[in-house]
Amino acid sequence: ISAVIALDVETEPEVHGMVERSLTLACRFSDASEHSFRRLLNWYMRREGDPKIEHVLSMIDSEDPTVYGTYAGRAEMLGEQGDMQITSLELVDEGVYTCEVDYYVAHEKGSGNTEVIISKIVDQITIFGHGEGRDGEQVVKYFPPGEPQTLICRASRAKPVALLKWYKDDEELTETEETYEESTDGTFNTINTLQFTSHKSDDGAVLKCETNQEPEIELKKSATMII
């Protein structure tokens, strides 16, 4: 029985993806010393804190790959090596992916790991307190001049945590307090409370609460109110 020779399999250490989009996991390796067309390629996935290993995809020789479980219809091979694309990403796709290559005739075998981190943009951002100003909607509200008001901004189901900032036109308002809640699906809700006193000169100004999920997500969402 021939001894198994270690095969060098190159993968990226870390790849970032976003919910509902796609990503590609690279898996590169050299040909075997002989019978290179005889190989078994597998992709596996393991989530943090879960000892269970999930089989994602397998391909023997040049046959069509077999895709398993929740990856059926979403995972496919790309190119002639071991690259795999996953579409319609979900939060549960986050974990460590292993590409394993086995030249079963030449007895050469190796594997490489890639950590996949999935981000999710805020579902919705809303201002409570004087009715509601939702994402993409402008609401006109009366603020009695000189009377202190409490406004609450909430951003729901974000990953990573969405930091919230308040603005009056282009001026950042800093009398705020922010708290976070973690949901069971690994996303976060952010609640930011603003203490605000308007003046007659604020008539027509725009109050805005805006999200920040950088560097993972550059797109910002905001909710506004016209004073």
Automatic annotation (TrEMBL):
Keywords: Disulfide bond, Glycoprotein, Immunoglobulin domain, Membrane, Transmembrane, Transmembrane helix
Statement: the UniProt record of this protein carries the keyword Ribosomal protein: no
Ig-like domain residues: 22-119, 146-224
Membrane topology: Single-pass type I membrane protein
PROSITE patterns membership: IG_LIKE
Transmembrane helix recorded as keyword: yes
Subcellular location, record wording: Membrane
InterPro entries the UniProt entry points to: CD80_C2-set, Cell_adhesion_signaling, Ig-like_dom, Ig-like_dom_sf, Ig-like_fold, Ig_sub, Ig_V-set
Subcellular location, principal: membrane
Name of the protein: Cell adhesion molecule 3-like
Source species of the chain: Saccoglossus kowalevskii
Taxonomy of the source species: Eukaryota, Metazoa, Hemichordata, Enteropneusta, Harrimaniidae
